[in-house]
Amino acid sequence: MHIIGIIIAVASAIFWISRAARGARDVANAASTLRNMPRRMRFKNNASKRGIDLIDNPMEAATILMVSVAKLSDYAAAHDGLISGASTSRIISTLKSYMKISAVEADELSTQMRWAVKDFVQPDTVLAPMTNILSKAINRAEADDLSDMLGKISQADGEANPEQKAFIMRVRERLGLEV
Question: What is the pTM of this model?
């Protein structure tokens, strides 16, 4: 009789311990779900967006303008919109020196932003959205620095052409530098 009582007690203990373990696992899963909620919400909000609609960071906006200036070069015109290695190198070195980021970060940022604007035939398409982001986030001195960066990139493949100069002037106007 005592053996049956001990077996029932052991079985009951095992049952309640497994229930407690399952409950602890459920609490851990709930905590993980809550911890990942901001990331999931960002993904959900961005899931319907594409390309430049995802851009909300001033550094990314500035890089897109740099890529756009490079896409206006004579080299890009002769090579179906592909930017030259010299322009890519100039963008990366400019990002490193002005934005104070590592070479790897600059290369990744440049690659991502080139991908974001790859389908745009007219680089002017990005002008308004990117300058809107920048005008809210940077001051006049930083806007002057951006203008200098764009000028350096426009000269990566030689002398800047009239389209590149006009694009830079439109950027300056939209950022309030030509007032």
Answer: 0.69
